[in-house]
Amino acid sequence: MLKYWYKDFAQYPPGHRDYWRTRLIGHTLLLSSSFFLVLTLLNIFYFESYEYATLDASGFVLSLSILAFFNRTANVNLASWAVTLMVTGLILLFVASVGGYAHSLYWATLIPPFAFFLLGRQRGSLVSLIAFGVCAYIVYNQIQEARPVTFGMGALFNVIEVSIAHILLFRFYEGTRSSAYRQLGERNAKIQKLAETDKLTGLYNREKLDITLEEYVLQSRHRQTPFSLLILDVDYFKQINDAHGHLTGDCVLVQLADSLRSLCREGDFLARWGGEEFVILLPETSLSICVAVAEQLRQDIAAQKFDGQSLTISLGAAQLREDDTTKTLVNRADNALYQAKHTGRNRVVAEAESPHIRAVND
After folding, report:
1. Distance between CA 271 and CA 207 in Å, rounded?
2. Which long-range contacts (CB under 8 A, 24 or more apart) does 86-91 make?
3. CB 115 within 8 A of CB 77
4. Is 266 annotated as catalytic?
């Protein structure tokens, strides 16, 4: 039964700008049909007011008719107008028929939520102004009549029914709001991930590396702990591209990135620097430990095959100094990598100015 009321329209999937309008139309027509059916029965059997029972029965039939039209055509704009005008017209007709007495004016407070959500800000404002203008006119007539006010069960039912309608309506609004914020958060997370991720390897990119490097340097100085950096480069990578093509070269880089990710220690930061070069940030790590980590990486990579290709890597290491900037730290590691590349490759070289200078060969 509910599948009939809440029909899924292929043209309005979750995330579509009109998805929640279709849901509100379904909600409204379900509630209005239920309300009008209950009111019809109350007016017939409790109040014995057949005039109002006829009005409520008309609302019941109109709600079902709009639902049938909407399910058949999926025309959300026409259905929105139909629902808004139905709600507005029936409420104003009811309020006018009782002269605004018995708390009937309370029903008019339901008009703006429907009008604004279904029709938008401008049309919703227009419909609401007209509706409240009619209500103001009814109140003006009450003042002119100066008629004493009495309250009965009708007033109580009006307050209860409208209060229930408000609660259900704003529960729906809160659901749409939380859903929209959740979707927005998920999309922002995806955008953030795309912005800081290398498209080929899935590692962090150069921009994210620069930001993180600044943060690690500040943390290292604040905590007075050592901080080291590794730059590694694939040896003779151009030969793989030349011999097997760039697609094979890309596969090799992807597999190498996965391997490096699994080999890095917890807390280390791995990023693709560009081309076949990668950078690893090692917080709370001295140069001697950094070199030992680099040597283990070198051996592990040399023992594997990547898309059927054997690889070796060269690595340059540097440790943060008191007078360092991120640029000078990276520059020293890059110079160490340059030495490793020009003194035989497949080796680890620490920064040239450091007392920990070393080169590790096979």
Report:
1. 10
2. 86/32, 86/59, 86/62, 87/28, 87/32, 87/111, 87/114, 88/114, 88/115, 88/127, 88/130, 88/131, 90/55, 90/58, 90/59, 90/62, 91/131
3. no
4. no
Q: pLDDT per residue over 86-105, tens digit each?
A: 889 988 988 998 888 888 99
> What tokens were used for 284?
């709370």
Tell me if 280 sits within 8 A of 215, measured CB to CB: no
Query: What residue type is 69 in one-letter code?
Result: F
Check pLDDT > 90 for residue 252: yes
Pull the structure tokens for residue 212. Answer: 């993180």
Q: Name the residue among 310, 292, 300 with its Cα closest to residue 240.
A: 310
Q: What tens digit of pLDDT does each residue of 173-217 get?
A: 777 777 777 777 788 888 888 889 999 999 999 999 999 999 999
CB under 8 A, 24+ apart: contacts of 201-208: 201/253, 201/254, 201/257, 201/272, 202/254, 202/257, 203/257, 203/260, 203/261, 203/270, 203/271, 203/272, 203/278, 204/269, 204/270, 204/271, 204/272, 205/271, 205/272, 206/271, 206/272, 206/273, 206/274, 208/271
Contact 22, 35 (CB under 8 A): no
**Whole-model pTM?**
0.59
CB count in 10 Å sphere of residue 9: 14
Token digits of residue 133: 């203008």
| From 161, 276, 277, 353, active-site residue | 276
Q: What is the pLDDT of residue 26?
A: 82
